[in-house]
Amino acid sequence: MPSSLDPDGFDVVPINPQRIFQEVANQLRRLISEGKLRPGDKLPPERELAKRFGVSRNTMREALRALELSGLIELRLGATGGAFVLPGSSNAVVAGMRDLYFLGAITPQHLTEARIAVSAAVIRVACARITDEEIDALEANVAAAERARQAGDFEERTRHHQAFHVMLACSTHNPVLIATTEGIMEITRQFVKAIGPTDEQNHYTHPSRKRLLKHLRARDTEKAVAEMSAALTKLHRAYMVKAEAPGNAPSAPAPPPPPPGPRPAKGRPRVPGAA
């Protein structure tokens, strides 16, 4: 399959051999950011790219893999395969935050502070942009979570609780807030999977969500922010109490040892719970 790009317009600079695949990847990133490579475009074949950059095919392959890990391109196999530029995606943000979690670089306090701050920003923007239909969808989510709670289905209830935050972020129509929220919820998902439910969560999450929806419908930004912040703070405390109780340490597989530097106290989970 021929490249969709004009060869004359695909300008690159020969690579300094001391920097190799990072420089190749950076030049391709620049072409994407400048719009010379657009979503859906197929890059020239690996052999041709290597010749243009003046590098080996192995080096070119490493550069393409780096771009794939960054969520900028997709490498497809087969006769119609190749390297294709992807539309914007939050996958790289989510993967990066997940890696920080497994490296032990994120403490419960870090995550609680971030969740409160990001949620406040999301709510402030959402109150100016959210539609009645989007609020209706949030209400349906809250109702589904309550039905799962009454049925004793923790996994289903948790899935709806976590989806609520992403749905709320989507109502901002801001890709930065959406990607950040998705990354935070991926970390909290790892924690909830390990620590399990809390009894306290059954008592206040549903009423809190109902109050939050009331404030969103009224476009009352300050009350909505205060409601979310109070709920996240309560949830954090409840999960910390459970995590620190004897025999209740997270049961997830142990992550790799954290790098040198401050570490969470022994027996504490690395992130707060999600709701």
Please describe the topology of this protein:
Elements lengths: L19 H14 L12 H8 L3 H13 L3 E4 L5 E4 L5 H12 L5 H22 L2 H19 L3 H17 L4 H21 L3 H19 L3 H24 L31
Antiparallel strand pairs: 1-2
Question: Can you walk me through this structure?
Answer:
- It is a single chain.
- The chain is 61% helix and 3% strand.
- The protein is mainly alpha-helical.
- The radius of gyration is 23 Å and the shape is elongated.
- The C terminus is likely disordered.
Distance between the termini: 48 Å
Give a count of the beta strands, DSSP E runs of length 2 or more.
2
The radius of gyration computed from the alpha-carbon positions, rounded to a whole number of angstroms, is: 23 Å
- What spatial form do the alpha-carbon principal axes imply? elongated
What is the compact description of this entry?
The protein contains 10 helices and 2 strands, in the order αααββααααααα.
Provide keyphrases for this structure:
single chain; 275 residues; mainly alpha; two-stranded antiparallel sheet; 61% helix; 3% strand; disordered C terminus
